[in-house]
Amino acid sequence: MILFLAVSTWRQRTGGGAAGEYVETLLYWNRFFGLGMLLQPRLAAARQALARLPITVQALLPVGFFAVIALVYAVTSEAQYELARTLNGPLGFCMLFTLAVFARTRIAVLGAVWNEAWRRLVLVGSMSMTLYLFHLYFVSSTRMALERWHAGTPLAVHLVVGTLAGCLGPWLLFQLLKGSPVFHWSIGSVVSVRKKPVTVEAPAGDLAAMPAPKM
Hints:
Strand content: under 5%
Helix content: over 70%
Strand order of the largest sheet: 1-2
Number of helices: 8
Number of strands: 2
Distance between the termini: 49 Å
C-alpha cells in the first residue's frame, strides 16, 4: 500500500509515462495479493470452523456476502467507485470461500462420483489461482502494447488478444515454475512431496527386496 501511494504520488507530479502506469497498476492490485498472503495460513482453521456450522447457516453465508456486495455498489456513487471496488474485493473472496466450504460439505455425503468430481474441481482451482494472481500482468502489458502499436485498437481485438494473453501467460508461468517450492508458497499452494518407499534387501538367495515395515 505504501509503495502504491508513493508511485501514485510520483505519477501525479511527473506523469511517469507508460512504465509508471504499469507499475502503479500492479501495485494497486497487489494489495489484495498481500491480504491473501496474510490470510492464507489461517484459512484451514477458518474452513474447519465453517464446516462445523449447521448446513443452513453455511448456505446463507455466501448469499449474505453477495447481498453486502450488491449493497455496497448500490449505496456508493460513481465518484466512490474505487472505494466500492476496494471493499468488494475481500467481500467477494469471503463469498467464494464460504460457498466452497458449503459445496464441499454437501458433496462429501453424496458418494464417490461426486467426490471424484470435487477432486477434479480442486485440480482446476489450483490452476485458477495462478490465473487469478498473474493474469493482470499479461492483460495490462498486452493492452498497453496494443495501444502503443495502434492507437484506437478495436475493442474486439483487445478482448480476444487480452483474454488469450491473460490465460496463456499464467499457464506458461506455472509450467516454468511449478517445480519451485518458493513459487508454490507465493501463490498459497502446497507442494505434495511423496516419499519413496524404503526397501530392505533380503539376506540371501533369490528373495526379492522386501519393503520396510510401517512404523
